[in-house]
Amino acid sequence: MSTLDRLAAEKYLLLTTFRRDGRAVPTPVWAVRDGDALAVWTAADSGKVKRIRRSGEVTVAPCDVRGRPHGEGVPGHATLYDLAGTRRVRELMKQKYRMLGRLSLLASRLRRGERGTVGVRVTLTE
Hints:
One of its GO terms (cellular component) is cytosol. Keywords: Oxidoreductase. The chain has helices at residues 3-9, 47-54, 83-112; strands at residues 12-18, 24-29, 31-34, 37-43, 57-63, 74-80, 117-124. By secondary structure, the protein is of the alpha+beta class. The chain has one domain: Pnp Oxidase, Chain A, CATH 2.30.110.10. The chain has a seven-stranded antiparallel sheet with strand order 2-1-5-6-7-4-3, with helices on both faces. It is globular and about 35 Å long. The mean pLDDT is 90.
């Protein structure tokens, strides 16, 4: 099983972005496989989105719901999806996370609107 397959099969991943001064900011997230990359869904105005826009350097590791890693981090490069790509990520999330995913996506859309969240594409660099 490839590293990408292994990470995509996890329920939660620890996505770590980096501040300008190099400090790591880890966040547990849901993730799905999108072709040859991982896809994450997050609030468009979150700190991680700002850090990804600045550099795109990330690591991903399997973790539990509280963000406690249970595997090695893998380096990657993150970019933001456009609106159509974000819609595709939402559909992939619904498929993987079933009812909980559908409810979370609906609540987010009601709270933030369609442009209030964005998909993040993570390409592994190992």
